[in-house]
Amino acid sequence: MLTKSPGNSSRYVPTKGLYILDTTTQTIDALMRLDISAGVDIAINRKGKAVK
Predict the structure, then answer these.
(1) Which of 5, 15, 23, 48 could form a disulfide with 11 if both were Cys (CB 3.0 to 4.6 A apart)?
(2) Cross-strand pairs, 13
(3) How far apart are alpha carbons 13 and 28 in whole angstroms?
(4) Burial of 23 (0-12, 13-18, 19+ CB in 10 A)
(5) SS (H, E, C) 3-19
């Protein structure tokens, strides 16, 4: 996964990403627990829409 570097739109910075194509409620629950306990920044999207 590549994200744009802040302040410089022409430079891309590699980031780590995990793509889970077929999510279940258990998968989302586990990722949310990881987010809270480990301080990991996790963004969960389901078919292009953010899950809150």
Answers:
(1) 5
(2) 3
(3) 26
(4) middle
(5) EEECCEEEEEEECCCCC
The distance in angstroms from the start CA to the end CA of the chain is 22
Distance CA 37, CA 3 (A): 25
Q: Can you give the pLDDT at residue 39?
A: 67
Q: Identify the burial level of 1 via C-beta atoms within 10 angstroms of its C-beta, where 0-12 means exposed, 13-18 middle and 19 or more buried.
A: exposed
Summarize pLDDT for 19-39 with one digit per residue, the tens: 777 778 888 888 778 766 666
Q: How many CA atoms lie within 13 A of 43 on its CB side?
A: 7
Neighbour-count burial for 41-52, b at 16+ CB within 10 Å, e otherwise: eeeeeeeeeeee
